[in-house]
């Protein structure tokens, strides 16, 4: 492996994205003595999702001890659950402590990635910058990287102010304004309690209510911070306790079990305790199994809905009009601004960046009916390319960073295999990938996510390309080591075996 050279013709590795996954991968590459790599970041700063989501009340609904890397512990978390600013500070701290910034190329928006079979490397086209070539590529752009306004009829006719939760307008003054919030998911339940403090009126447009559990956010005492800093093993123990606590929750939310009933009882008790009005309580009661959609963690949302200046609207939206929102019963609600807390363009079909693999196959075409990969990381026909938080790696009960850390270590081992062995390519076998996904979908059919509700976990056809059907320990254990027998290994200077191409459905 060569030393880092910013002028190098072909890099050993390129990481696309400087969010949690990209920074974590860079740290682990350096730990493995792989230095000749670069991070391509389209923005002007690190942080990814936590750089972009700065709306009022933005926070993580996973405990801070668990929403962090085990190889980069932070003894100074201020609360059980951290706000977006504190999480972003943690990312910046990692960049500084592990000397990652010199590897980041900001303003590098990757617009095309093509495999060069003859040369055995990937060619990345960058908008307005010189192209980049690399032997291996890590796609660390994440599933929550792209935000856009929802496809609602009449949205372009609205003349007021439009704000997406992931593109917050901090210059807009909400004081005394009439505000609409479209959506009642994880972002909305954090935004609404903040908006009712300043806005004249807030109307929340709900399509379906979610299961909501209390979020007890305690301040971390100074003594505990000192103990964690002086005795890191105590923080490791705390992280382990949080992990196993969340792992047990899988029995209630991943599958329908007697524990599912307990989760639902807790949700209903939380609703009864915080909402006294029977009609409002009925409107906020979910009609699907707990876990089918993402669980909401908040103790502030229900009280906010009952403020004198807040109204819950459950009539479906028919169209946006120049002055506001018209619902299906014919009422037009007029607003100064509309906040769209409608989530992200999750890539469970297609790809956010065009990727062309072997024999001119296009990944977006292959994923048009639903994304598939081997262990969520590698895709047959796209050698030396790896995905973080790829297809079917979503947790429904635990921290995404637990899954991501396992992915990163697997990816670094795979990259080391290519570099140490001076390989032309390592490409996961199609039959291995197919067998893995057949078993995966068989298991998913028995989960709550596939039990009938509509969610961003599923494609329009009901294909689940998002979630992993099991415990976090099961996901982590499958990534303990790279099984070389699952890959077609081609040394440099050796022509790869020719295999019949499987027919690919084009969109």
Automatic annotation (TrEMBL):
Its EC number is 1.14.13.-. Keywords: Oxidoreductase. SUPFAM superfamilies: FAD/NAD(P)-binding domain. Pfam families: Pyr_redox_3. Gene3D superfamilies: FAD/NAD(P)-binding domain. It comes from the Bacteria. GO terms for molecular function: oxidoreductase activity. This is NAD(P)/FAD-dependent oxidoreductase. It comes from Rhodococcoides yunnanense.
